[in-house]
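Predict structure. Chain length: 253.
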Amino acid sequence: MDKEDQVLLRHLADLADASCGRDIPVYTDFLNLHEQTVFLSAMPEFSHVRVRLDGGYEGAERKIVCFLPVYMEDAGRESLPIVPICISSSAGKFSVPCTHRDYLGAILNLGIERSRIGDILTGDGYAYVLCLDTMADFLMDQLTSVRKNPVHCSRVPFSSLEGQVSYTELSGSVASVRMDALLALMLRGSRSAAAACLKAERVFVNGRLCTSLTAAPREGDVISVRGAGKFIYDGVTSSTKKGRQMVRIRKYN
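Prediction complete.
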């Protein structure tokens, strides 16, 4: 564990102690996958406090850690310091298509730190961004254009995010259900290239770092490959006469 990870854990420990000692909810900024792995690896150290990770919708990649008192154990997302904001183009048919990078770049150019922003879900002429409540008003007031498109920002309920995540289905056969074989299928590459991804610490399963070639994902696991996308492993659908396993995988669009 490097120095930055140790600093993160000390910060998280301070927040957990504050929540437990004062019986109040305490929250972090949005954590990336590596930071979540660092936290999850130290979970026994936080057994004295109730913990919840949430990114604003099911399947979110960037999440905040919530240290909660007993009276908030069953609290809904509306009680969390996360605000969904819809960014919509007002240029109509003259809108220039925008990517995730375009929206993120426009937001960061306002001087907002990356840790204050969660996932961004893009659509045709719009995007939903999850942000901390302390940033919501500033973002809505200051973000007026994305890639030369004039935009309008507004708060929306969490229910607006339902159905916004779409997938591309991938299927194929693997010799065995192990991580290097599945990654080769996901990335349309070789097992040696998949092994390199694992060695470079680019692969996360349900937010936890995975470096094992032989790890066997379970049905429903979310596999994120830094720089290549996020996938859901749906399991084995059948076997071939030669003993290979047919598997189904969905890639987040």
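Summary: The chain has six helices and 14 strands.
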